[in-house]
Description:
The structure holds 2 protein chains of 2 kinds. Chain A has 2 domains: 5-203 and 306-396, no CATH class; 207-301, Thrombin, subunit H (Beta Barrel), CATH 2.40.10. Helix content of chain A is 29%, strand content 36%. Chain A is built from 9 helices and 27 strands. Chain A has helices at residues 17-31, 50-61, 109-123, 143-154, 231-239, 241-250, 304-320, 334-356, 380-383, and strands spanning 5-12, 39-45, 66-71, 74-76, 79-81, 85-92, 95-103, 129-136, 160-164, 176-178, 181-183, 186-194, 197-203, 207-208, 213-219, 222-226, 229-230, 261-264, 272-274, 276-279, 285-287, 296-301, 325-333, 362-367, 369-371, 385-386, 390-396. In chain A, strands 14, 15, 16, 17, 18, 19, 20, 21 and 22 form a 9-stranded antiparallel sheet that branches. The radius of gyration of chain A is 20 Å and the shape is globular. Chain B is α+β, with helices and mostly antiparallel strands. Chain B has helices spanning 2-28, 32-112, 117-120, 126-131, 161-174, 176-182, 197-206, 236-325, 333-364, 376-393, 412-429, 476-480, 487-497, and strands spanning 136-142, 152-157, 187-190, 210-216, 223-230, 372-375, 397-401, 407-410, 435-442, 446-453, 501-507, 511-519. In chain B, the strands form 3 sheets. Chain B has a 5-stranded antiparallel sheet, sandwiched between helices. In chain B, strands 7-9-10-12-11 form a 5-stranded mixed sheet, with helices on one face. Chain B starts with a helix and ends with a strand. Chain A binds chain B through residues 13, 15-16, 47, 82-83, 168, 170, 172, 209-211, 237-240, 243, 250, 252, 255, 258-259, 299, 301, 338-339, 341-342, and chain B through 70, 73-74, 77-78, 80-82, 84-85, 88-89, 91-92, 94-95, 98-99, 125-127, 130-131, 135, 157-158, 231-232.
Amino acid sequence: MPEAITxxxxxxxxxxxxxxxxxxxxxxLRKLSSLKPKLxxxxxxxxxxxxxxxxxxxxxxxxxPLVGQSTAGExxxxxxxxxxxxxxxxxxxxxxxxxxxxxxxDRAPREAGQQAAYAAVRQFRGGARVGCLLFGEGLVxxxxxxxxxxxEILGTSFLIAGGMAGDDLQFAQTYQYFNHRVxxxxxxxxxxxxxxxxxxxxxxxxxxxxxxxxxxxxxxNILYELDQQPAASVYEEYFGPDVVQRMRTDGSTRQxxxxxxxxxxxxxxxxxxxxxxxxxxxxxxxxSGEILxxxxxxxxxxxxxxxxxxxxxxxxxxxxxxxxxxxxxxxDSATRRKLLGFEHAAREIACIREAVGPSTPLVGCYTYGxxxxxxxxxxxxxxxxxxxxxxxxxLGT
Amino acid sequence: MxxxxxxxxxxxxxxxxxxxxxxxxxxxxxxxxLSLVIxxxxxxxxxxxxxxxxxxxxxxxxxxRLRAAYDQLDEQAKLIIRTDLELxxxxxxxxxxxxxxxxxxxxxxxxxxxxxPEEVFSKLDGATVMNFGxxxxxxxxxxxxxxxxxxxxxxxxxxxEPEANQIKAHLVDSGLLKQILSRPAPAMxxxxxxxxxxxxxxxxxxxxxxxxxxxxxxHTGPVGCLLLGAERVGSDTETKVDEELVSILTNQLAVAVxxxxxxxxxxxxxxxxxxxxxxxTRELEKANDELVRLNKAKSDFVSAVSHELRTPLxxxxxxxxxxxxGQFGALAKPQGERIAKIEKHSDxxxxxxxxxxxxxxxxxxxxxxxxxxIPVKEFVATIEDVVHPQMDAKHLRYVVDVDGITQLVGDSxxxxxxxxxxxxxxxxxxxxxxxxxxxxxQEASSVLASVTDTGCxxxxxxxxxxxxxxxxANDPVNQQIRGTGLGLALVKRIVEAHHGRISVESQKGKxxxxxxxxxxx
Lengths: 397, 521
């Protein structure tokens, strides 16, 4: 008797984009044997020539619905890999799915979210809608608006989970895959339904280290003042002027991503994490997600032990509601990979694998943002997108 | 803090005012007792408030201490963050090195299996370039330093052919390529610090702010040019590490080129050797075929001639016998002696012709050896009958040891000729009263029959030629003994026709042993 959800994974570490795409897709398809896939999820290194990569994959998979994105590193069962292409194929009699695309998230994020959700809903045929997997532009700072747009179509309590695309920590351009198209500044959603279950677990394991400061002035993703002081000066206070100066001149905040900002809304004891994306001339900080004025903010620090515990916990959370797991997707923050380093990043995936079962097909990617409802906060409608977290999405019955 | 102090002062003023009012009231009215009570209450309140104020002051001091500790903790947090930042940087650098070294190791394994220098130059892949911390790469091969324009890009990582060709033209025209190929150490080019116009142009063409250029310069084989470009400029330490890694990489490539060149040379030599061996084998096969053909022609010729000789020889023998019988009149003694010599030599010639014919027949395959069981007892007795008179004439001792073997397998008539021949030779060369021994020994799948004599023996240098046709040992003893030089040649042919082997061991002056090994079944 076939599994309710059968998933296979193929990946390639070849350097030629076309061949890598082809090899990964062929490998996944071969393992699927005679079953017919319903959906392909692709994670590809931004290093590849993206159109060629997708061309290679499509040459094998034909017109199969395909979604995915570029990454800051790819994840397979054996651990993190780089400069590779990973293809997940899902075949199932009980799964119904449809895909949708929203464009220009940089100009109109809310509308892009609506557009993606609406397109997916319109194509969805039969069965109950269970959840939405989201793949989107990783360098946009108003991703919460994208999610809001989707919620306006699917409902505010509808389960939406996913990650934001990466580009191997170059912070230059990320890509989204939608069927035969490679896009930037886009959001791609997959509406999942039928007789399946979608389990989600998100954790970060970071702890506050700095003195709490009140966010006295903020708008959207821009943090202007903390305790009525320019936000950048506070940042400088902790990192030292040299590091901040280097970040300003390089235009790169790579050094700082291991220390996200932790925002604690008044009513919760849960920390939402934000990365500093850039420095404003006026001493403001542009962050990777929305900043809520009036909340408390602290600088966060992580350690390997807590990060590994968080990964296990997220995986366990995701598995809670499932009787039988078909496959697992991991959206892991690029921050965490940097924090964990080469050796512990592999251990983190091992922790997740242990929790979901060693034979469960597992794929994922390192992201610039993770999006999932946080169980511990009531503010998830506004603050559901964060960084520094590991999100585990389990599909099963 | 200021607010707290103001509050305390206000309380003191209110109390003082109250006390003063109460005293005024006590002195000015008859309500003295009541006034005293009020004063007492006021004093008690004053004391209470003073105590309260002291408590507040202590709490305030505690708060100050806590605040200081809190600030200290925050300062420590800053220190922790900065230390952690350094640790992160170190870990990142270590990870980068680790990944780079793993890449080097992986590339090394790939290079090891490169069989041609050209292959080495096409082994640089995108993963290696990325793991080294670069985003683009070019690796070119140049067969000779004399013709740099002939350089050929073998690995293009994130460059198109036209881009690569443009870069090559610039490298050649500006003389940069010559510079790169003249020194093995890599050079770091940075847009912010490079003042050389040619280098700046190169960075522009590469489309990166930082690049490392290095020559792949092996001792033998083609040379190469490696260009790696990075999107961002690293720290001084990173740059140093990059240079070191690129240096290791180019050395590895150079060694691989040398090895593959050596391998290619060895391979080419081996191929040439193989070709020569095959050519020589063909020549030998051809020569052998020719020899076989000639040998057959010789056998045919010998056979034909022998046949032709037999008829006149028979006539000579017949007429000599007639003359010798005296039918044509009595013969004088000298005449009789001459005719006897004619008969004797005719017999010898007849024997020679018969042997020649037999050899020719066996060689041409016209004679098939029967394979039948031969009872050893009868076989040995038959041979003994033939050679017995000769042995007796020389008073030789004849010893036979069959070691329980009851039968041989083969053609009885031909095998009799073999052993009669060997025994006759033994008799000829063994002095009077010597010993001749015929022994049979069972071996794994064969029977070994040996004829041993105590004769004059054979010189070692004569042994290999002994079985050749018409060969007779150059020996004073041999000169006195008559023979055709065909006996042992015929014996060898018969034994080999039985799929057997014949060999000889001899010691000069002590005797010889001829051994014949025949298949037992």
